[in-house]
Specification:
By secondary structure, this protein is mostly beta strands. The protein has one domain: monomeric porin ompg (Porin), CATH 2.40.160.40. It has a 12-stranded antiparallel barrel.
Length: 245
């Protein structure tokens, strides 16, 4: 029952955030966004890793946007998708500081399986590829890139822990309009970790996707998690369904 409650809590929170945002922006703004569902029946090295991921993004108003991810994690020493025993989710609200600004104030709320381990962050995101002086360069690369400075963290850990989050999305029209690359890299600073671990550990993923038919993609992901003491690398292969509005 506790596991069910833990999973339902962030789902209810994300629905609540979206409903409030849509209600606030409905009269002034036509929302747009996407939801994609990814399933990974193949994991190369690590069994205890995400096997289902759901991403949701929405531009609620001209300045307020929402993004969330929900990972369902496979049980250790079991075949992918046979036993799911954990979850991790990020719920993000982003507020553009001015209509023509490339900076957003950000709130990120993390929920995960277990007790006393939720984590919330306040920060500033720079949409680098929207910066006027750099826009032409990134347009030539067909790339969107942003960096989020999670400056303040609220959790049960001692000290001032903070994080940098890098996100990119890239298309390859010179190869195929069906091909894309999306990636993120989170680097955490000032965390009290064992001496055998990196002082500023990375968690990163790079997903290469190809659209087979409309809205359906085959995807492969390279994953790096330096919080694991060994086997920090993993590769996942799966399918994605993406709906945009």
């Amino acid at each position: 029952m506790n596991n069910i409650h833990n999973v339902l809590r962030p789902i209810i929170a994300s629905i609540f955030i979206l409903c409030i945002g849509f209600a606030h922006g409905a009269a002034k703004h036509e929302s747009h966004g996407f939801i994609d569902a990814n399933i990974y029946p193949v994991l190369s090295d690590i069994d205890k890793d995400s096997v289902i991921t759901i991403n949701t993004a929405a531009a609620i108003t001209d300045r307020l946007s929402y993004f969330s991810l929900m990972n369902f994690i496979n049980q250790d020493n079991s075949d992918p998708l046979s036993e799911i025993d954990a979850f991790y989710t990020e719920q993000n609200l982003r507020w553009k500081v001015a209509d023509d600004s490339v900076f957003d104030l950000t709130l990120q709320m993390n929920f995960r399986t277990g007790d006393d381990n939720d984590r919330h962050r306040l920060g500033v995101r720079w949409r680098v590829s929207d910066t006027q002086a750099l826009k032409s360069f990134f347009n030539q690369l067909h790339m969107k890139y942003s960096v989020n400075w999670h400056a303040v963290q609220f959790d049960n850990e001692p000290g001032h822990v903070w994080q940098l989050e890098h996100v990119l999305f890239m298309k390859f029209p010179y190869i195929s309009n069906r091909l894309y690359l999306s990636a993120f890299a989170d680097q955490t600073f000032n965390q009290d970790l064992a001496s055998s671990m990196p002082s500023t550990p990375f968690v990163a993923e790079a997903q290469l996707g190809f659209e087979l038919v409309k809205n359906f993609y085959v995807v492969t992901e390279y994953r790096l998690n330096q919080y694991r003491r060994s086997d920090v690398n993993n590769v996942a292969v799966g399918l994605q369904y993406k709906y945009q509005w």
